[in-house]
Amino acid sequence: MSNQAPHPALLIPGPIEFDDQVLQSMSHYSESHVGMPFVKTFSETLKMLRKLFQTEDPKAQPFVISGSGTLGWDQVASNLVEPGDDVLVLHTGYFADSFADCFETYGIKVTQLKAPIGDRPQLDEVEAALKEKNYKAITITHVDTSTGVLSEIEHVSKLVHRVSPETLVVVDGVCSVGSEEIQFDNWGLDCVLTASQKGIGCPAGLSIVMASGRAIERFNSRKVPPTSYFGSWKNWLPIMQNYEAGKPSYFATPSPQLIHALHTTLTQITSVPLSSRFEAHRAASQKVKSAVASLGLSQLASKPENQANGMTAIYLPEGITPPQVLPKLMAKGVVFAGGLHKQIASKYIRFGHMGVSVTDPNRSDIDTAIKALKEGVDEAVQEAKK
Amino acid sequence: MSNQAPHPALLIPGPIEFDDQVLQSMSHYSESHVGMPFVKTFSETLKMLRKLFQTEDPKAQPFVISGSGTLGWDQVASNLVEPGDDVLVLHTGYFADSFADCFETYGIKVTQLKAPIGDRPQLDEVEAALKEKNYKAITITHVDTSTGVLSEIEHVSKLVHRVSPETLVVVDGVCSVGSEEIQFDNWGLDCVLTASQKGIGCPAGLSIVMASGRAIERFNSRKVPPTSYFGSWKNWLPIMQNYEAGKPSYFATPSPQLIHALHTTLTQITSVPLSSRFEAHRAASQKVKSAVASLGLSQLASKPENQANGMTAIYLPEGITPPQVLPKLMAKGVVFAGGLHKQIASKYIRFGHMGVSVTDPNRSDIDTAIKALKEGVDEAVQEAKK
């Protein structure tokens, strides 16, 4: 099935399992970061990102920078808003707190709108919040990796455009791009930030951002210069424009090997209709969620409409903790993740179902994992009774 | 000699040619960033970095973060100094200007001490400058990639400790770590920042920093919090300490594949005495510099004592420009870089001689390159005469 060394299937909500060809691209021989062969690869990569985000706005701008998803927060906080500005952060888990912390580092004033664990802020609450202040941006975590809660970014974005049209719509898509549909133009999004190692299916090490023409305009009309250096679009914007246009350009050295791997996975992703990719994720997710329900277990994400399609956060039976279950799953060949939401971390586990584990018909990762989950939880419950 | 696909030898001052095993490590199957197998790899990697930097100070702290060498500047500017502080930047080329730009982004006041192109600030000039202000830090570019000028970091550091003992000694070692000797403890250095893709011999994508116990103390006694988020040691310090101690820890997702590759190259580097590694670089450099002289060409770095051992910046014959020479070298199987120092970019080329190209006796990269350089320059001169 795969020519990788034998290893347990990595089914955490990122990093995910990678395709053989993608991993082989990581071993690409060394190339100059300003030589034409690599420039062509980077150019094609940036163009394919436009397809993945379903944007045809020529003024929209993709950025691919060595880093991690977290660097996307810095890019937003230091380029799209200015010290003293207000932003509204919709909270569906751990990652909203961290994004808020990032904004505050750069002198931005944050208002968080928090939902109960397992839920998301409701549209009427968002509308009321938007009317309270002049927010320069709103952030929405599309899928919070700590809870598996899915936000309704299309509806929130349309609401923002209606009631607070000057507010930029920023989506943290670290755990959604590639596994959840995102119609960048149609939904009026201004910035989506993500990372390479989840739905996109490329090893970790890249911060990937798509900014709308409107976001770039906002950036270009800043009153003060960007407040970070490594994440500054003043430094990166001309570089990305040049690379995409096939012109060598230098600010900081990109990682040719990671860009090759990203090129390979984007080539695979864009070679089939995106709709079938998202359908495969929905189908796998339904299979997982049905299995979870049939085990008598519940999800953190409390309603069908707020459950992510690329991961499932699963409450363990009362009194059972992740260390009682995860090693059993590992022994059965699958790696799940423990809880991450501080208040309830000891009560749940997380199952990632993204990328080749759901799109490659030759892989049986999901079925193996469902079987292991059932057996592992049963064994843990039996042991606890002893 | 190598099982990599046929390709021209990459002899720019980074990225360099990589060892087969290092590239194979880039294809490592996917692992959890918080699973014990990867935690062990990361722990060993951090410990090997201490050896490479020749530090035994238990309070010194290595950092390895997804990014590039440039991110090291952000780490220094946002963690080791505070807005309003003065820093003294010794200028030996392009990269001092950029480091200064980074400091200014974070509200630091920069004084640059500039040497003529091809030289470095002299010790008496540094001493005089240090006495003019209360500098919180001094920065020295160990090897400026744009000029090939080598700074005398040991002597500058000892001078700083003598005349301005509160000033932190910061070294930009992006183009020196792994190819030039650095005795972190003995020379009293407080921070050395570097990247993976040059003397260390691992593909691009990692920012690598070593901070002294004194630097960490200075960080811990900051009056204001770190002024960047992704590069904040408040976020990263506990993570690095935990990984090194073998404990899983999470702030932002590291790149397991890049860390594996770094582990492989550091295992190779630390398996032989460091002195022989640096001697190999000095010997290769002498061979290159002798060949350059025998072609009647001169170097940007104007004196034997200020010439780097991992690269050579070579003035082309009068009237000959890089586009007249570089394609000829490429046709002969070697990739050199063009000029980077804005004032003279069209007058010179750069030849990187670091890593396996000089340490692997099975590789003939340097001899091939010297021959190609002679032929290529001769041909360009003949063509120009027509």
Question: Which features characterize this protein?
Answer:
globular; PyrdxlP-dep_Trfase (chains A, B); homodimer; alpha/beta; about 375 residues; aminotransferase (chains A, B); transferase (chains A, B); Aminotrans_V_dom (chains A, B); EC 2.6.1.44 (chains A, B)
What does this protein look like?
The structure is a homodimer. With about 375 residues, chain A is an alpha/beta fold. Chain A is about 40% helix and about 15% strand. Chain A is built from 13 helices and 14 strands. Chain A has helices spanning about 20-25, 35-50, 70-80, 95-105, 125-130, 155-165, 215-220, 235-245, 255-270, 275-295, 320-330, 355-360, 365-385; strands at about 10, 60-65, 85-90, 110-115, 135-140, 145, 150, 170, 190-195, 205-210, 310-315, 335, 335-340, 350. In chain A, the strands form four sheets. A seven-stranded mixed sheet of chain A has the order 2-10-9-8-5-3-4, with helices on both faces. In chain A, strand 6 and strand 7 form a beta hairpin. In chain A, helix 2 packs across helix 9, helix 5 packs parallel to helix 6 (about 155-165) and helix 11 (about 320-330) crosses helix 13. The model of chain A has no long low-confidence stretch (mean pLDDT about 95). At the A-B interface, helix 3, helix 4 and helix 9 of A face helix 3, helix 4 and helix 9 of B.
